[in-house]
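User: Show me sequence and structure for the first protein, then do the same for the second.

Assistant: Starting with the first protein.
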Amino acid sequence: MKKTLSLFVLVSLLCMTSYAQDKMMSKEMMSQQVRVPVDETVVTNHTTTIKGKTIPYSATAGFQPVWDDEGNPVASLLYTYYKRSDIKNDENRPLVISFNGGPGSASVWMHIAYTGPRILKIDDEGFPVQPYGIKSNPNSILDVADIVFVNPVNTGYSRMLPGKDGKMPDKKMFFGVNADIKYLADWVNTFVTRVNRWRSPKYLIGESYGTTRVSGLAAALQNRKWMYINGVILVSPTEIGFEFDGPVEVANRLPYFTAAAWYHKALPPALQSKDLTEVLAESEAYAVNELLPVMVNTGFIDPARKDAVIKKMAYYSGLSERTIRQHNLEVPKAYFWKDLLRDRDGLTIGRLDSRYKGLDVKEAGDRPDYNSELTAWLHAFTPAINYYYQQELDLKTDLSYNMFGPVRPWDRTNNNTGASLREAMGVNKNLHVMIQSGYFDGATTYFNAKYVMWQLNASGKLSDRLSFKGYRSGHMMYLRNEDLIQANEDIRDFIQKSSANISQGARY
């Protein structure tokens, strides 16, 4: 058994959430015919095989409330807690608390495709196969850590709850960078207490906007709940409050362009014949050392130098010199997705995973008609998670599972999550951070992820507690089987490294 929305996981799908869906959900929450469980769980027992060893475990699927300041339940959050059941003493057993992004995305993605004991049926490159369903995950980290997958308000089966007067709580309690962190810190504190895991080493993992969430949570749990975290894993991170745009943002695009073009064999032979990481090292060096200074004053550089830069950008991107010149060296990523293969096979490439191709109505245009990778993912994930909860975890409900729930408007002001995480690392000697990114992710690019890591280490004194792992896939790098194996192994290594010396005390 950020300023730009493009930096947030699957946010394009949030735009696809129709007005009708929003109304339907509002009706559903208010209807007495569809009951929202407030504080209920169901426990099932299972076994799986991980790295060749049989692992027994319990799965607790259910709901835990969020309370207001007066102690009234204002929301009910769906969670799924996997606990290895052959461990008698869990005081040294790590607990991993997992969030996805959006904001507005359910925890479905990492739950049934990455670290959990059951994953959806897809092929080795991450494409859907039918019949849809679930299979065992021989790479799950459940052998070394227990895991809880949390769905924030309006995602999955999680919902706001009406008060005694029948009115819904103010959305501002939940839908914003800091509101999200505040109520989730309270929720995590209650959960850890209920399952008696205060002694355990604790880890937070978040994907895309979930990295903003867990960066802020690490600091909030430490500063407000006195719950000290051992590790934070940032999967395909956003800018986590480190604002970077203008010349920096433009220059940072180039290595991603290089990666996607390399995958589609659109680079010159001199580059195409090299391994991806070797090519990316060249592109990164050029972006930082040559392109960035030019982008600061593009309109005033010597024409000959500008020509040389355009030629080099074309060399590393697979785009034509004409295209780069027409865009004043600032080619939007959306245009890149539309244009890279336009003159070759007339197809587009994916945003969140540029390995995927799409077919538009017209070859002309400056952006793809749709995100080709999302349609493939939703084919597989939606039926799998609905089947899994109802049939395998025995969680029966008439609520609709919100892959992407209505959380707009989302208050993005005062996002200091990265700075807060950096400060938390300074205070807590035991706190380590690992970043995992797919080279072919065009939304939260791997080179922006490296840039975020550099900002976390502004003092240069945290290098031994920061690490970066790159994978030959996209935003959800774990969908590719080879990367699923490696990425889970990287988490195991991260947990082992970050917990190796904790008995010696958290001191400098």
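Switching to the second protein now.
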Amino acid sequence: MSDFQAPAANAPDSAATGAARYPVTDKVLEALSVSRRGCDELLPEADWTAKLARSEATGTPLRIKLGLDPTAPDLHVGHTVVLNKMRQLQNLGHTVIFLVGDFTSLIGDPSGRNSTRPPLTAEQIKLNAETYYAQASLVLDPEKTEIRYNSEWSDALGARGMIALAAKYTVARMMERNDFHDRFKAGTPISVHEFLYPLMQGYDSVALKSDLELGGTDQKFNLLMGRHLQQEYGQEAQCILTMPLLEGLDGIEKMSKSKGNYIAITEPPNEMFAKVLSISDTLMWKYFNLLSFRAEAEIAGLRREVEQGRNPKDAKVLLAKEITARFHSARAADEAEADFNNRAKGGIPDEIPELALTGAPLGIAALLKAAGLVPSSSEAMRMIEQGGVKIDGAAVSDKGLKVAAGTLVLQVGKRKFARVTLT
């Protein structure tokens, strides 16, 4: 089963019906090109073109919405795929609405889930939401961004309003959704409250009178719900723009903090730079396309150079410096590059954690764990077997080593260091 399709572009409330009144100028085509860059789908494109033409002709900015549920306290670069697109459209002069889903988080988004997602508590939501906008402002222009919370209108609906809203969509249409269909077929429980999530997200579009809503490809059903409900409420239907989901550092799973394959946008610059350098040469181009602000022609030229023999690390360094500079500074990016090169040569970074420990002589595995460089003694043993543990730059091969008292620099892998004074 597939997600339901967008209504035809020539529907009675379609923006395309008025397209003939406004010329599609070169500026409109340029804005359309910016909209399309890196996106998975833009639906319906004829409507979006018409909205852009009307906006240019009348000088009225379009309202562009992105909703994020504060399910975790930190954003990662996977979240910035849609934030980058918002910034590009913001730079064209349109109104960007950063919507914090403090109400919908109480329900829990069922998108892509094969089980009921545990809803967050109000306290968890409040704590997470406090940092969301501050982090998003590292990408968006805060002076040109409208921040809203969907509890503003969702709380006000009450039981009567919720029933009226639920009457505007059928159970049969709701069951066309992939995750609901698959879970029902497998006999996996679906809670009634999960049906409310796409309805409430769609109602956000009604409340905000949005012209365009952005989201990941896994949000298509919810985004199209917004179109449907706007039509139900007599509004011009929004267009939707879906962006691909960004794989994490492993190149397999979607970037996720819970999977440990993420780059947090608040990550220290040295860590951020090194993590970008760790992605595969193949995945690098998807990161360029979705995370870089370089012109598409420049990226294409860089890719040709690599295909013709240029070291792919050169391109990856450019990407790592661009991303690090975006969330820190150009100077921090330069220093991160120098730090990375120093580590690659076996050098010790200028700034590493310092701590004092007792218990000398202490077993190497216990020492590494106490220093916070490994999560367990078994992981310490595995790293020693792989040659990934060094003391003062010398590799450790003896898993039974007892470390005497003194001050020493411990290293695990390429990026974990600690200066320990052991007594």
